[in-house]
Amino acid sequence: MDISEISTLADYFILASADNARQLDALEDAVEDQVQLDGLHKEGESSSGWILMDYRDIVVHLFTKEQREYYDLEKIWSDAKKDSCIIALQR
């Protein structure tokens, strides 16, 4: 989601879902392996169902499907520009 015009928190939110905590750990590892940006600040853990990875201008939200539905950031940030894509990560 492009939030640059409606927030000073960041320019973009990236949201991803996993079926369970183990897959959430794999998503976290994949993001860390692929994203080569400085300034990583992480909060949460897979057991909580939500991991936030803050790269200053880009904030990555990794959820279990249940937590993503519960927090519904897409609804909270409904004014953001959205570009939907589905990426399958394989290890």
Give a description of the structure.
There is one protein chain. The chain is of the alpha+beta class. It contains three helices and four strands; from the N terminus they run βαβββαα. It has a four-stranded mixed β-sheet. The longest helix has 14 residues. The radius of gyration is 13 Å and the shape is globular.
Structural class: alpha+beta
Oligomer: single chain
* Helix-strand string: EHEEEHH
User: Given the C-alpha coordinates, what overall shape results?
Assistant: globular
| Count of runs of 4 or more consecutive helical residues | 3
Distance between the termini: 26 Å
Largest sheet: 4 strands, mixed
Strand content: 15-25%
Order the strands across the largest sheet as they lie in space: 1-4-3-2
Total strands: the figure is 4
The helical percent reads: 25-40%
Overall mean pLDDT = 89
Extract low-pLDDT stretches: none
Key phrases:
91 residues, 3 helices, alpha+beta, globular
Spell out the blueprint of helices and strands.
Blueprint: E1 12-18, H1 21-34, E2 41-43, E3 50-54, E4 58-64, H2 65-71, H3 73-76
Parallel strand pairs: 1-4
Antiparallel strand pairs: 2-3, 3-4
In short:
The protein is of the alpha+beta class and 91 residues long.
